Amino acid sequence: MFVDSHCHLDFPDLAVNLDELLDNMRQNNVTHALCVSVNLANFPRVRSLAELHHNLFASVGVHPDYESLIEPNALQLAELADHPKVVAIGETGLDYFRLKGDLEWQRDRFRQHIRAAKQCNKPLIIHTREAAADTLRIMAEEGADSVGGVMHCFTENWQVAQQAIEMNFYISFSGIITFKNATTVKDVARKIRLDRILIETDSPYLAPVPYRGKINQPAFVCYIAEEIAKLREMSLKEIAAITTNNFFNLFKIV
User: Fold this and answer.
1) What is d(CA 246, CA 64) in angstroms, rounded to the nearest whole number?
2) 23: left (phi over 0), alpha (psi -120 to 50) or beta
3) Which CATH number fits domain 2-250: 2.40.30.10, 3.20.20.140, 2.40.440.10, 1.10.10.10?
4) What is the pTM of this model?
5) What is the pLDDT of residues 85-115, one digit of tens each?
């Protein structure tokens, strides 16, 4: 069986076909999925999905790409996370690719999320793009290792992966790993400890080969597992079991 550790089932492209997507998950042995929050305005619908479906879970957080919002504080995030189906804080982090200029507000927001995670003792879901050095620095300064978490949709090199793992973080691979030119990500997948691997779709984005360019969905997470199995010269069954076990361990789901 497989688990999608990061998806956005509340986004319009997926929400309109939710019953079909859940059925596709069942048919492809994807037993659980984590629906990740990107802003507080839409958090109630993310939480509602988790409440309505036994095999869906939720996170709470504000994505670094969302500007001009009332900034969340650690106490507010921790209070929203006080729910049995909310298993993580995030998606949070830094993104220097989409936004330019003075991004100190992004770094401040990231710190608030780490502090919230420590308050509620739940792991972090971290997004980083063209900001690895600052991301790792803030994680270290704020003591993110005390709660750990996952570096979602990982695209950095082995050195960044090693530093994140040393801070008690998992590395999550998306459909990017199936792309021919994703040599850096493939290298990380070959080297990483098996007990630190997660798989995700980040749907509706980044559909894996053979669906590249189409709307992604949790059922496609098996293609990511297949690629990792090939890179590691292991069976698909082994990778499925390892990544599923890692998911339940990280998010403390019983």
Assistant:
1) 26
2) alpha
3) 3.20.20.140
4) 0.97
5) 999 999 999 999 988 889 999 999 999 999 9
